[in-house]
Design a protein that fits this description.
19 strands; 5-stranded antiparallel sheet; globular; single chain; alpha+beta
């Protein structure tokens, strides 16, 4: 259907897990219940906990136990006793928003993604794609078993974003944003969820944002012929005009060379470059006294900005990762005498000895 679908965010009511904790227009007021838990565990496939890019890039290779940080809200700000010395303003946003695919588009997704699995193997870790399967497929409706079975066999996993939008985790889609989605079925079937209080660009631990329950209120409209008018192959976004502004950032560069691992040269691989930038930032934060786990959780949850610097200079793509200096209580800038290393404790880690 050659229509375009627009969504404008007007207000947000964010409900936590207690009737006295609520938010309106992004301003979180807290009552007796002040804590929101965000987990970073093996379920998150935290790929930066390994320096080895050619094997499973997860906490298992780092031989780390699962870790978590509990974030406290005060007004629009978040802080954590597990990552002391940090306080930042949240950018509440949905990690997932999009329309429904047509049967033809769904078949295209399954064909190309199962082809990728066939190319690299179903046992690759992390998976290169997620094929339809019964396990973990929740239809949410009382329907005929034959239809349910068809959904199990053909339904796309919602983990990756696709042409319809979906789970793209764009942190700047907050209050005042506008989104233009292609429409593939009658009624569009817009869906939204995976709400975050804050997240760094890349959400590097997969569920690395500060996750929250909540409600979004928005208005919608249809632009007939919008797909053709705007050459709309994938969604277009107008991000929020009222994000918190951090004017100074300490920026770390990454190239498509596995500098933190075996030194392998990759050809214009921006993912490798992003990982190297993040690993450089983690190593720097450790010089300030943060543990590797604390640094990893912080970069996942704080308003970190990542940009592609260059993808034209073979063989190295260049990606940058910027940490706002204003979120720290201490001065984190480089100094001739070195960095002041403090005892900043540790985040909450799994205590039963099981390595994830």
């Amino acid at each position: 259907m050659p229509w375009g679908f627009t969504v404008s965010f007007r207000r947000r009511v964010c409900a936590l897990d207690h009737p006295r904790a609520y938010a309106f227009l992004g301003y979180i007021r807290v009552g007796a219940w002040r804590r929101l838990v965000r987990l970073a565990s093996s379920l998150s496939f935290p790929f930066l906990l390994s320096d080895e890019l050619n094997i499973t890039p997860s906490a298992r290779e780092f031989k780390s136990r699962a870790a978590k940080a509990i974030w406290d809200f005060e007004g629009i700000y978040a802080s954590s006793r597990h990552i002391p010395g940090v306080r930042f303003a949240g950018i509440p946003h949905p990690g997932l928003i999009g329309t429904a695919p047509s049967p033809e588009l769904l078949a295209t997704w399954n064909r190309r993604e199962t082809g990728l699995i066939a190319q690299f193997g179903a046992e690759s870790v992390p998976p290169v794609a997620y094929a339809p399967q019964h396990k973990g497929a929740y239809v949410g409706q009382d329907i005929d078993n034959k239809i349910r079975e068809k959904i199990y066999q053909e339904g796309a996993r919602t983990i990756p974003g696709r042409e319809h939008g979906g789970n793209c985790d764009i942190k700047n889609l907050s209050r005042g944003s506008r989104c233009y989605f292609p429409v593939f079925v009658s009624g569009a079937n817009l869906s939204v969820g995976d709400l975050h209080f804050s997240q760094g660009d890349g959400e590097m631990s997969l569920c690395g944002a500060i996750e929250m329950a909540g409600i979004i209120t928005f208005k919608t409209s249809i632009i007939k012929g919008g797909v053709e008018k705007f050459a709309l192959k994938q969604p277009i976004f107008l991000p929020s005009p009222i994000d918190p502004i951090y004017s100074q950032k300490l920026v770390f560069e990454g190239l498509s060379v596995d500098i933190h691992g075996d030194g392998k040269q990759y050809n214009m691989d921006a993912t490798v470059a992003y990982k190297q930038a993040a690993l450089n930032a983690i190593a720097y934060l450790q010089k300030l006294g943060y543990t590797r786990e604390q640094a990893y959780l912080l970069l996942s949850a704080a308003p970190i900005e990542s940009h592609v610097g260059a993808i034209v200079d073979s063989p190295n793509a260049c990606v940058t990762l910027g940490i706002p200096t204003g979120i720290f209580e201490q001065d984190i800038l480089p100094k001739a005498e070195g960095l002041e290393k403090k005892n900043l404790g540790q985040c909450a880690v799994r205590s039963d000895g099981v390595v994830q």
